[in-house]
Every structure is written in structure tokens, then in C-alpha cells.
Amino acid sequence: MTRNLLVRLGLTATAGALVLAGCSGGGSGGGGAAGGEAGLIAVAASDDSCDVDVAELPAGTHTFAVTNNGNRVTEFYVYAEGDRVMGEVENIAPGLTRELIVELAAGDYQTACKPGMIGDGIRNDLTVTGEAERLTEDELLAQATEDYSRYVQSQTVALTEKNDEFVAAILAGDIPGAKALFPVARTYWERIEPVAEIFGDLDPAIDGREGDQAEGEEFTGWHRLEYDLWVLGDVSQSGPIAEKLQVDVAEVVELANTTELSPIQLANGAKELLDEIATGKITGEEDRYSHTDLWDFAANLEGSEAAVQALRPALEERDPELVVALDTEFADATAALEVHRSGDGWQFHDQLSADQLQALSDAINALAEEVSQVAGVIAG
Amino acid sequence: MSEETRAAPGAGSGPRLSRRRLFGLAGAGTAGVLAGGGVGFLLGDSVAEAGGPGGPGGRTGGAGYGDLAAATEFDGAHQAGIVTPAQDRLHFAAFDIVTDDRTELQAMLQEWTAAARRMTRGEAAGEGGAIPEVAESPPDDTGEALDLPASGLTITVGFGPGMFVGPGGADRFGLAARKPEALEDFPAFPGDTLRPEISSGDLCIQACAHDPQVAVHAVRNLARIGFGVVSVRWSQLGFGRTSSTSVGQQTPRNLFGFKDGTNNLKAEAGSALEDNVWVQSGDGPEWLTGGSYVVSRRIAMTIETWDRTSLVEQEQIIGRTKREGAPLGTGEEFDPVDLTAASISENAHIRLANPNSNEGSALLRRGYSFVDGTTELGRLDAGLFFLAYQRDPRTGFIRVQRNLRTDLMNEYIRHTSSAIFACPPGVDGPDDYWGRALFD
């Protein structure tokens, strides 16, 4: 890609972001930048509004304090151009306040609250002014892996919380509660699955399907519990499986948080998430008892976009046309899925007609063809 | 339609011969293929009358067909279609036995053998031919292979577990005591997505030829002969071979775009065939000695996701280079696979499938690529119809397939059909028939 070697001049607005996510319970953020010069920026979220204190900020580190005044669990995001995630807090239950620490360089951003944790959310513009750093290409790639690591961390926090709730519901024999939590807990896993899959033995134990086991291996994990919930309708014997799932997830979370993906792995991970959709979700193979495949579909799509957007500054340097194509196809695929929204979740896989599934398949194929180009551009 | 038949020798040959000559002269409009076919059949009939194919000037006939038109020897110690150099096209069919009558089953196998013998010579399935003397009769042969040469046709038969033991362990035909121990439906393998309606079967026919119409013709006519005794359960077309079974053949590529079957067991393997392909005396019931077990697996490929996988990843999954088919870290296709080489990933397909990773187990693969149109998602319904011959499936396919549990390729394939059959040894002359030793 000689073309790109010639275009090494500075990048536009969105460079040089550092993101730290934390929660008010005292958590995962760390880093001395907390609090920041600008003080706390209050965000009042409800089921249908998202009031952010400010619309303009100076470049630097800022802390958003997001209070959920609504009745639905919400999320809060800061996006750079192309919905590149600069920072996010997941799983803000009604009544809770959580903080997001994020370092923003000069540029145009958007904030979003996502009541119900789905969709594009309620957006506000946010303009940051001041000095913008210029990064070299190598720095852009290093930045991408750091950004994505933070994304993984935010997902693993929510994964642990939601999976704990799911396990608790199973242990309490609360079948309707566990059924409702099943696709939600999986969402955070499905968003970062390429990272989780690095840890060979854990993925089959957590997410293996019936029949995937070697001789003598037990069928465990989410899909075993899915079977108990939907097919047996009886979780009285499921306790040990649920507890093992909790242990396995804790282990994968710890490993994931100490792993940094290379930029190429990031690009391939984005593609693999879409292949997961194509082979596992559109076919209904993944959640064959609960038919909650579209939750996984949405999560895979979001995870893929997060990985691609982490690479966005580098891609803009190297192949701006590809960035345009990626934006278009991500928007199209998201819109194709959006048709099947149902309340806070999605339609069940077995409610979709063959034509509807084909439309989803076509959208993912079109998107994945573009995403599959990313690794080559990054490697070039 | 001309009367350019695959008629049996002697069936009204006088008048037909003259009509053939007429056709040969008048056939200019339909170009060399038909004309060539005509010449081929004239040759074929005269050879047949002279005592059968394979003799001097045998049916290597039709002008323009070259060797691809030739007939394959039907009789022999082993059935044809196993170590026979793999032909280009396949029609494979599995049947359920619908009769309760052992004699009917036995009689059908005799009829099948006779029809197969004729068809492999390029003749009609039934003695009456495709154009009967009495026009009020339906033809004895369905006719679509009229004017086509033998095209290397081989017809190979196999017996499934259900022929010996019916549902609930019933001894359907008094054959239960003769069921080979190894002839059992497979255990479930990780990742199986089998569809029962296109799996298993009581009998199978593998028809291979260089012309797809000749292969289809063979299955169609055998199915017709079998009405009332057997019923087609499922069948599969294959349009391109994915294995070499002879050192003289170039290694073909499968639909992943990779050379397939480089290290296959081949006809020239000598004693390795005895060790790995042919059932030996003492292995099990004596009727199967000289036979083999065939495993069929319809392996659908997720073509679309494979195609957007980077070249380096594709090569790592397979363990070979795409261009040359060389084991990674070497230069040429037939360089030995070094299992200690770090260049070949731990879960690469060629590492896990290699005999040295499977206690020496080697299979004779004879698979074909298929494209069965598109799925309801608008994706190509394509893949590899895997066929493998072995001396014992327990130390053959089952062992290898278990070892493939962690194969990197699994992400891109789905096994959708599975079956196993015991293929009796070959037949010895016109009085012999498939499975005679089993029924005697």
C-alpha cells in the first residue's frame, strides 16, 4: 500500500483518545486522571431522555456521572465519528449512578443513552476544542489495541454482573427470570467472543453446543442451561452446571482483561464475529432451544463494529474509501436487524420467515466482504 | 430418437445394425459427439459379441472421447469403483429395503448384477434395450444413455446395517448372524448436523463415470429394477472428483480451492491396500473377505465465510499452500508432511488427518464436489460428498473423525449426511452376483 505510505500526515479530529470506564461502586477504572480538571459532568438518563450537562468541552480527561432515573436498565456511550466507541458504561440499573472517565481530543463526538440497552440510543452532540495530538501510524495502531482492550474490559464487567444474576436465578429455581436473563448475559460474551475464544478450553465449556463434546466430556455452559430451561423446563438439577459456568466465566474474564489483541487480530476478530452471525445465528444453530439468536446477532454485530471502529483512525489514513464502505454496510446491516426488534429485545429466530432470514444473510454477507478487507489494509 | 441403442448383444442385431449405419451416415447435423457415439456402439456391440469388453480393441471407442469413453472391467476379485482411478462424476444412491422376502432381495441382487455388467459395457440395462421390438411395451432401458459410450462407468454396491438387522433387532432376512461386527451406525461425532432423511440406508449404489448422464442412467435403471424390493432413500450427485486414486492422476482441487487427496491411498499402494482397504480373511464373516467398507458423509461447506478468509489463514487451516499444495514449510506438493514442523499448526487439517496422528490409519478417499443449488438463505448449497473405503471403519473413519474434533476446518463445514455400507467382494463371471456368498 504505497499510497498510504505517502499519506502520513496528521489525522483529523478523533485522534488520541484515552478511555477509562469505571463505576461508582469503586471499580475497574483506575488511572490518575479520574475526576479531571473539568469536574463531573452530570448525565440524567430516563427511559426516553438523556440530558447531558454540557455540549462543549475542552480537550482533556473528563468524567461523566450517569444517573438512571428511568425504569429500564441503560447504557451510556461516548462516540467519535463512525460510532467509534471512545468510552461506555454498561448495565446502569434504575436508580444507580455510574461514572465514565474518558480522555477526548479536539473533535466532534456524540453521547448516547441506551435505555433497554439496545438500538442507537438517544443522541446528543458533543464538541471538544483545543490542542489535538498528531499520532504516527504506528501510534494509531497501538491506540487501536488500547481502545479495544478498554472495550473488552467494559464488556467483561457487565458480563460478570449479568451472568451472576442469571446464575442466581437458576439457583433460585426462577425459570422465567433465568429465561429473560439468558440472552442478556450472553450479549456481553457475544460482543467479545473472538477474545474469549483465544482461551481454548474455556470456550467449549462456556458456550459449547450439545454434541460438540469429546468422548467423556460433559455438556456444560449456557447452552446446557438453555436446554434445561427451555426443553426440560426444570432447573432443579442445574445448580452445579450454573456454578461451574460462573467459575468458568470468571476465569475467562480474568484472562481477557490481561490479553491485548494485535491490530490484525482485531481486524480478524471483527470478521469472525460476522461469520458467527452467518453460520450460527441466521441458521438458528446457536440458540436452538430458546431461539434467542437475534440477541447474539445484535451483540456480534456491535462487537464487530467496535473492533473495526477502534481501527478507524488507522483505516482513515490508509484507505478512506473502505471506511465509507464500512460505514454504509454497518448501517445497512443494523437497519436490516432493526426490523425485527420486539420490545427491549428481538423476535425469536423461529418467528422469522425464510425471506426475512435471507435478507439478514445478504446484509451480513455484504458487510462481511468489506470487513474482511480490513486485515489486509492494516497489514499492508 | 434414433434406435442407436445400448441393446444387449444379439437382441435383434440384424435390422438394428442397418439402421445404425443409416444413422451414422445421416447424423452429420448433430456433430461429432453423436457420430462418435455411433461408431463407439458399433465397436462395442461387435466386441460384446466377441466375448466381452476389455479384449483387443475393447470399447475404447468413440471418436473424440479418447480414454474417457472406455469401459472398465466389471469382474474381478474386488468390486470396480474403489481403486479404479476416480472418474469425474458421481451418482450415489442409498436404498431402503421394502420387501420382507429374502428370495426377492436375492433375485434383485442377481438382476442388479446383470444390469450393472451390461451398463458398464455401455449397453442397455435390460436385454430388451431402450427401443423395444413391440412398441406397446415400455422400454427395458430408460434411454438417456443411448449413443453415449461406457464412459468408464463403475457400479459399486454396498450393504447397510439395516439389511441384516431391522428395527428392534429383527432378523429380517435370516442374515443377522452374518452381520459384520464393524457394520454399525456411527456414534455421534462433535459438530454433527446430520439430517436423518438423507442419512443411512439398507443398500447403496455408487455409480461413477466420466459422463454425468451415464452415472445417473445407471442409478435410475437400478432403482427401476428394484421397485417393490427397494426404495430410494436419498441420493447425491457429485460433479467433480476431489481425490486421486492412482498416481497417474493429477490431484484435483475441492471447493475450498485446495488440492485434495495428495496423500490418499492409491491403487499402486500395494500391501498398504491389503492393510487398509480390503477386508482380509479372518477379519469377520468370510463372505466379506475381499470387500471393503464405504463411509459416506455429505459435508456442506460454508463457502461464503471461507471465501472471505485471508489466504494465510486458509493455508494454516489446511496446512498446505494453496498454489502448490505443498505442506507448509516445504516447497512441493508431494513433499512429506513433517508433523514436528512448527510451520504446520497444531490443529491444521493435514496434521490431524495424517495417518501418523491416527495410529497409522489410512483411508482410500473417493469424494466428489457437489453443488445442490442454493439454500433457502440464498447461499450455495455446496461442499464435498466424502466417500472413503477402508478395511475396518472402527480403525479407519471413526478413529480419524474423532481426531478431527479440533480441526480448524470445522468452522467452515457441516456434516449433513452419514452412512456406512459393507461392500462385498467382486463378482466372478456371469453366473456370479453381488453378495452371493452372503446368501449361500
Number of DSSP helical runs of chain A: 13
Query: CATH H level of the largest domain in chain A: which superfamily?
Result: M75 peptidase, HXXE motif
Helix content of chain A: 40-55%
Number of strands of chain B: 10
CATH architecture of the largest domain in chain A: Up-down Bundle
| Overall number of domains of chain B | 1
- Largest sheet report of chain A: 5 strands, mixed
- What gyration radius of chain B follows from the Cα positions, in whole Å? 22 Å
Largest interface: A-B, 24 and 19 residues
Let me know the number of strands of chain A. Answer: 12
Quaternary structure state of the chains depicted: heterodimer
Low-confidence stretches of chain B: 1-5, 7-66
Order of helix and strand elements from N to C terminus of chain A:
HEEEEEEEEEEHHHHHHHHHHEEHH
Q: What best-fitting shape of chain A do the alpha-carbon axes yield?
A: globular
> What is the helical fraction of chain B, as a range of percent?
10-25%
The CATH top-level class label of the largest domain in chain A: Mainly Alpha
Structural class of chain B: alpha+beta
Shape of chain B: globular
Poorly predicted sequence stretches spanning 5 or more consecutive residues of chain A: 1-38
Describe the model.
The complex is a heterodimer of chains A (380) and B (440). In chain A, helix 3 (175-191) packs antiparallel against helix 6. Chain A starts with a helix and ends with a helix. Chain A is globular, with a radius of gyration of 20 Å. In chain A, the strands form 3 sheets. In chain A, strands 1-8-5-2-3 form a 5-stranded mixed β-sheet. In chain A, strands 4-10-9-6-7 form a 5-stranded mixed β-sheet. Chain A is of the alpha+beta class. Chain A has 2 domains: 17-132, Cupredoxins -  blue copper proteins (Immunoglobulin-like, Sandwich), CATH 2.60.40.420; 154-379, Up-down Bundle (A middle domain of Talin 1), CATH 1.20.1420.20. Chain A contains 13 helices and 12 strands. Chain A has helices at 2-6, 137-171, 175-191, 193-196, 202-207, 222-232, 239-257, 263-281, 293-310, 312-318, 320-338, 354-371, 374-379; strands at residues 18-21, 40-45, 50-52, 56-58, 60-68, 74-80, 84-92, 97-104, 107-113, 122-129, 341-342, 345-346. With 440 residues, chain B is of the alpha+beta class. Chain B has one domain (68-440). Helix content of chain B is 23%, strand content 17%. Chain B contains 10 helices and 10 strands. Chain B has helices at 13-26, 31-49, 102-120, 212-225, 271-276, 303-307, 311-318, 349-353, 397-403, 436-439; strands at 89-97, 154-159, 203-209, 230-238, 240-241, 292-301, 364-365, 368-374, 380-390, 413-423. Chain B is globular.
